Amino acid sequence: MEIATRVQTLALRGLRELPAEFIRPANERPENSKAIEGTSVPVISLSQPTDVLVKEMSSACSEWGFFLITDHGISPSLIQRLQDVGEQFFQLPQEEKEKYANDPSSGMFEGYGTKMTRNLEQKVEWVDYFFHFIWPLSKINYAIWPQNPPSYREVTDEYTQELLKVTDKLLELLSLGLGLEGEKLKSCLGGEKLELELKINFYPPCPQPELALGVEPHTDMSALTILFSNNVSGLQAWKDGNWVAVDNIPNALFVHVGDQFEVLSNGKYKSALHRSLVNKEHLRMSWPVFCVPPLDAVIGPLPSLINEENLPKYTSKTYEEYRYRKFNKLPQ
Ligand SMILES: O=C(O)CCC(=O)C(=O)O
Ligand SMILES: [Fe+2]
């Protein structure tokens, strides 16, 4: 396996100019595609009554595909501890981190990674990451989790338990918002077999942030993604032809619809196109958790949402097939 050049290693070299593979074509550069002013992402407090939440959330998912949640019940100190252990891992000596290197080309997605490129047409992103399952127990491979700092596992397990409660609540509200029974969307995601994947994105300060992207525009193939950052701005989501910067509200969680919920809802909920920018001064980190069905779950528009006015807009297929097609850029 070829060892990737890590973005963190490049950043430590104190480059003044960005290597060519990071320089985006003019139309993709942040300097030429700025976020609009005067629009902000809906903020939904989970402390409101259910009927209010159902309305606010379903309209946010239909109109925006994303929203921020506050009063979600996860303590600020737990979020801080999760940030600390993630940051401590990335501060380890490089050779220590390389012990966890992943190898997506041979199907080993979990571990420490950086996307590579072999030709200059294909640009790369200014980010290193760590990726692993956090749920269900049968999918967890603790051997690939950072052993350092030693509290990484305990803190991450605790966050998982708290996040499962939030996920259940969101899935229930989003089901009700489609006029379905509260348990419906969770059962479509395999019920207790629903999977959670954690990615830690590490974006070092970048010498020419106006020419680069942290993560290029994409929709997540998950059903739902729940994310927070270290309060350094950079995440943007696409709404009606413009980029909208996601505000940093301390301890709020950013929630967005992924492809599987767009398909299940037959397009009522929109999978959010989003990207992240980097900056010159500050390290940015983010912790998305992807909520996904098991690979053998068949995902298609829900029959109860289909009628003569609402014909199916998507084909049904297993999540495994969807993932294969998305990775290989094949039509769905
Ligand atoms: O860093 C962020 O805020 C977004 C990252 C992201 O979209 C992803 O990893 O899928
Ligand atoms: Fe994403």
Automatic annotation (TrEMBL):
Q: Which UniProt keywords apply?
A: Dioxygenase, Flavonoid biosynthesis, Iron, Metal-binding, Oxidoreductase, Vitamin C
A Pfam family it matches: 2OG-FeII_Oxy
Q: Which SUPFAM superfamilies match?
A: Clavaminate synthase-like
Any GO BP annotation = pigment biosynthetic process
Q: In its UniProt entry, what is this protein called? A: Fe2OG dioxygenase domain-containing protein
Fe2OG dioxygenase domain: which residues?
193-293
Q: Which domain of life is it from?
A: Eukaryota
Oxidoreductase listed as a keyword: yes
Query: To which species is this protein native?
Result: Nelumbo nucifera
On whether Iron is a keyword of this UniProt record, the answer is yes
Concerning its family, UniProt says: Belongs to the iron/ascorbate-dependent oxidoreductase family.
| A GO term, aspect molecular function | dioxygenase activity
Q: Which cofactor does it need?
A: L-ascorbate
Instruction: Indicate the secretion signal residues.
Output: none
